[in-house]
Amino acid sequence: MTSALGPGDRDRDTEGRARSARPRDGLGRPLPYGTEGVERQPEGVTRTPAETLAEAQALLDAGRPFHAHEVFEDAWKSGPGPERGLWQGLAQLAVGLTHAARGNATGGARLLRRGAGAVAAWSAAEPGRERPYGIGVAELLVWAHALAARVERGEVPVDAAAAAPELAPGPARGDG
Questions:
Q1: Predicted confidence (pLDDT) per residue in 7-47, tens digit
Q2: d(CA 23, CA 32)
Q3: Which stretch of DSSP H or E encloses residue 109?
Q4: DSSP-assigned states of every residue in 119-166
Q5: Could you give the angle at the alpha carbon of 90 between the alpha carbons of 87 and 95, nearest 5°?
Q6: Nearest to 66 by CA among 30, 36, 114, 33
Q7: What distance in Å separates the CA atoms of residue 66 and residue 63, rounded to the nearest whole number?
Q8: Which of 56, 35, 44, 40 is nearest to 17 (CA)?
Q9: Cβ distance 97 to 65 under 8 Å?
């Protein structure tokens, strides 16, 4: 359904929850009404872990970490309870990259470190979780801390596509 909402109107779904009808750019920032934005990620999609990683990696590689965060958020909200910390941490890493790409050094560094902590805590909670679903946890933690240090030094905004992490070496990214 196309919306003819203006700046003062509120878009609501059938349950009354607020939904933004404003178009968004590739980093999730609202654009003026009537502007063409990028296609938004559908919400509430249940994917397998492999599908989640593949879709999120494609979005990260395309410089769309805000949209990758939404994919991780779906996994976090719909996945098994014990795995929610992993997906939440990955979502925080994507939001940290989003903030860094938007030029927000404080928010970017904070979320990158918080996300790294969540992923590290989840993987350390039980032996054998070092590479859940093929995710290179150790490599991802190095990436997150290095990017956080860069943005803390004021090296913002970052190019989201160039700074994107490799979640899982191999098929999840398409390199074999």
A1: 455 555 566 554 567 888 888 888 888 888 888 777 888 99
A2: 7
A3: helix 105-124
A4: HHHHHHSSTT-SSGGG--HHHHHHHHHHHHHHHHTT--S--TTTT---
A5: 125
A6: 30
A7: 9
A8: 44
A9: yes
